[in-house]
Design brief:
Layout (H helix, E strand, L loop, with lengths): L5 H24 L10 H12 L9 H18 L6 H18 L5 H19 L6 H82 L4 H30 L1 H5 L10 H11 L2 E6 L7 H22 L3 E7 L4 E7 L6 H4 L4 H11 L4 E7 L2 E8 L6
Parallel strand pairs: 1-2
Antiparallel strand pairs: 2-3, 3-5, 4-5
Helix pairs in contact: 1-2, 1-4, 2-3, 2-4, 3-4, 3-5, 4-5, 4-6, 5-6, 6-7, 6-10, 9-10, 10-12
Length: 385
Amino acid sequence: MKSLSRGQWCFDVAVAAAFVVIGQYELRFLPESGYQEGSFALNTVLSLLCAVPLIVRRRWPLTAFAIAAVPLVIASLFTVHALTFWGMGVPLVILCYSVARWSEHRHASVLALGMAVLVLATYGIRTTAFADVEAYAFGGALFGLSYLSGAVISRLTRQGLALDAAMVQLREQERGRQSQVLAEERARIAREMHDVMAHGISVMVVQAGSARLELASDATKARESLLIVEQTGREVLTELRHTVGLLRDPESAAGADPTPNLAALPALAQSMKVAGLDVRLEVEENLDLDPGRALAVYRVIQEALTNVLKHSGPGKVRVTVTRPDDLRIEVVDSCAGSAPKFANGGGNGLTGMRERVGMFGGELVTGPEPDGFAVRARIPMEQGR
């Protein structure tokens, strides 16, 4: 049921009152307007029945039209009566328009057109002056145009509402997409932060512990360890500054410290050697990787070496990066003393490695092997391959 504003109600009441006045004036003082035959009392009642339903033409359009049309049809079957132009004809046309414009019932249009046809068809039964082609054509044109206008406006209104709803849905989808992008960006930054911090702090902790133990017996070695702590701290700060810089302004950060890639692997291996790991690095030549995959390779190897340093301590580690078909990464710790502690763990390190590899449709496998504890990753060179 349609809800109307106070202004709409007042407008429809004013329109109905105006046509009541016009209809009564027409019956009394304009005998040449339309067809005025029959009883004055009956014509007065029929005129009121045509005008008063205009009050509810928007809320109950089909009922309003029926209140006006049905009495006319019944009266036409049994007696002669008036059918004035302004007081009865125009209100009927407005009511027919209102059915097409406002009615929500499925078959309302058929019923409205049927009632309009009955009004015209039955009026000529008793009123012979109306029974000519010109009168029927004029009446049919009025009802037809009013109904067509209402139907067109109703359709355009529904399309406008549907378009507004679609725009609202698109805006909601866009907000959802932006939220997803922000969430993905936060996750990416969190991974970068974790990788940088975990690697750097692990090296610093190991070297600080070594310096503490050697401080009394070998001051030179202690100084070397503390120097490594200082250098590693500077590197961590540099990477963190670059990551935060990318977040704030990607363009200004683009010319600063580059994002780690395959070219940074020798420096990573060297830093681990200084920390006590005997890292043997084997990287296939001429690996042409996009920046995303190159960063993933670097971070997977960095996290794997950091885990070795934290859980296994100094030892021999073999790192290989090859591309027989897909890109393959292997980090094998031959001295994995306490490796089972993190072999099946769900910590942020392994989770971060899996997420990085999973971004490209790859897979990560970790676990003990005859040669030691191994981290193996496969990254397809084409998404979804």
